[in-house]
Amino acid sequence: MDAFGTLLRRHRLHRRLTQEALAERAGVSSRSIREMERVPGRGPRPGTVERLAVALELTGDERAEFVGAGHTLFWASRAGRSGRNAPPDEDTSAAGSPLWQLPADLPDFVGRDDELTLVCEALDPAAGGVRRAMISGPPGVGKTALAVHVGHRLASWFPDGQLYAALRGATGDPAAPAEVLAQLLRVLGVDGPALPAGVDARAGLFRARLAGRRMLLVLDDAGGYRHVEPLLPAEGIAVMVTSRLPLTGLPGVTAIDLRPLSGPTAVELLCRVAGAERVRAESAAAAELVTACGGLPLAVRIVAARLAARPHWTVGTLTERLADERRRLDELRHGDLAVRPGLQLTYQGLTPAAARAFALLGELDVPSFPEWPVAALLNVEPVAGAAALEELLDARLLDDLGPDRAGQPRYRFHEVTKLYARECREAEIGRAEWAAALARAAGGWLALARQAQDRLHCDRLYLDDRSGAASVADPRAAAVAADRPVEWFEAERETLAVLVQACAGEGLAVTARGLAGCSADFYDLRGYYADWLRSMRVALEACRQAGDRPGEAAMLRGLGGCLVELDDPDEAVSTLRSARALAQEVGDRAGAAMARKHIGFVLSLTGRLDAAEVELRAAAEELRSVGMRLTEVTTLTSLGFVLRQRGDGTEAVDIIRSALAIARSCHDRFAQAYASRGLAGALVACGQAREAVSEARRAAELFELIGDPIGAAQSLRTLGEALAYEPHRLAEAEQALAAAASLFRDRGHDWGFALTELSLGELEVRRGSADAAGRLHRALRYWTDQQVPALQARTLVALASVAEQADDPGARQLLLRAYRLYQELGVPAAELAARLGLPEDTTSPV
């Protein structure tokens, strides 16, 4: 058995793999594995060696030894003997010996397994044809390190040597192709009078000198196609090119675009340079440290070197130093290693427009952005903005993320690059100029948010004051927002949250309020309550700072509506009453009416039915008088809920049918869905389960159509309750309720989930299931914590039924507790009184 066969068998057995299992992992035949292990001189192809190394999970020195043995055996078998690399058929240089020009390999190189495999496949001598690999990526991502590492690892593939040329394409002084060719020809023994003049003559001689040789040419840091094309040798010579640009147009090239290292791989690099034991002892701090570096290999190597040079430092010490973003680039330097110079050099090569866009986009500090904001920030036409963006992409100062959920191309900064961009803004663009640029960009986002908001099918909160003008110059962006409103808001969700904060910080209160107000409708629709709460609080404070009293009233109302969804009814009512008072003070009749409607809704949820009815009837009248018909629909539906809770089922049905008629006359799908769901609940209360099923289904379908998951979940819960009244449809009921519970759980809607759990518990009681008690006790704890007496009472009745099924004498006490709660609420409980054997007019059960 040769050295490679011995290593293959040893590693396979160490990992407890059969020959068949290893063959499946590596994508080769088990027969090949057997022959490689048993037949001396059986030389595998280089690509097979790489696949086996990956399948065996080899790293570091083990991998290098394994791959080197495989490559040595391959070349020896091709030459017909078992020695080392086969010598070339003719002299490979003027001195007749191989040329090894590559810089030294990094002993602590980590990761890049997928990229290594791609490069090996591209350069594999057995593949034949053009063998070219193009490695691209932003500054500091490790392009040169990968190319050099590959060259050393595959040295046995190139017995005639390896040539290396630094093209300096990313510098201000790129090497001219004629200069590079002269350098390479001198290495190949051509000098003095034999060195021709001109690029074409030198390129021809270079190709002739390399013809028939087994060599690798590494062209490092190319500036573009014209930089590379004259240097490409004849077919048969393997070529690796590194460049910030992805030069995918080179003939026959395999393109590999490098990204930052993953967290675990970056930590592994930290371990190799600074010491594994030291780093592993502070794993959380190490993870934070590489995150602060953005996974950029150069940055990680720098902090690792600093740790190695300062053994008294902990990892946490350096993590804390990098926590301050304004000092982070200063910390990312060690000796002659630094991140800032590379970025500075690239920045200095930009045109004035691109440089300005770079600085402004960095200060904007949004997670990602589409194309149009570049023109808005620069205050230029969209075409000029697109040109500046393209220049930043070519310089690899921005990452192209591809299309977002709305189909817009989207871009972002690497975190470290963004820090340098913000430095540039502070150094070169004044605060007032920056504020004006922010106002233009944020105004563009506000204009698009209004376009999208107008086409959402949802409960209208009317928090944005449309008297504040906003516009965007790019008609394509406006079309996306109008045509795909939900997808547009989803794509811009994180960015809008950052903009609200940024506008508030710059005193742009009107824009902050508008962005928060438009977004609130979307947040309500999709159940993003944390985003809703955060934006309302930020915009509210901005309005207060600006003395914008109408804006403050609107944001208070939006905050109150959010608190309702977050199950904080007392704080919600208090906030909404403040909103109503302030709206009345500033003469906002519509705002005051909407606040009153919300107050009534909260009171109805918490069982304060008399007060809720008063607020909702008044709100409906006020809304009708100001012409807010759609909000009147939801108000009347909430009033119907109160009436059925009080036992006035017939009136509830009538009122909600009138709300549904208004919704249909307005042709609004959300309002129709909302009223249909409310009608289904009222019909259930009146014993009209079959009609209730039809209305609940219609509501669920409409909510699903308009993209409202919470509305759909609430409708499915109502559907389940209606179906449960028909004994032969209990399975359907359970399916609908389970679907509702899943939607509520996924969206973090605790109230809806608890109510669905109650409905499921009641269903299980009907079935006599033993699981009912546990589910109902969980629901009871929730309603008790939330202080919702009506639902406490309903849950107690269900628990009493469980106890009765088990002949538990405690059932009566549960019924009495429920009866007392209904009496306190003023809710008729004749059926419950009958179960307890009490006269119907009893007000104080004993």
TrEMBL record:
Residue ranges for the region (Disordered) are 79-98
Q: Which Pfam families match?
A: AAA_16, HTH_31, TPR_12
What CDD domains would the database entry show? HTH_XRE
* Domain HTH cro/C1-type per the UniProt entry, residue ranges: 8-63
Q: Which InterPro entries match?
A: AAA_16, Cro/C1-type_HTH, Lambda_DNA-bd_dom_sf, P-loop_NTPase, TPR-like_helical_dom_sf, TPR_rpt
- Protein name in UniProt: Tetratricopeptide (TPR) repeat protein/transcriptional regulator with XRE-family HTH domain
Species: Streptosporangium lutulentum
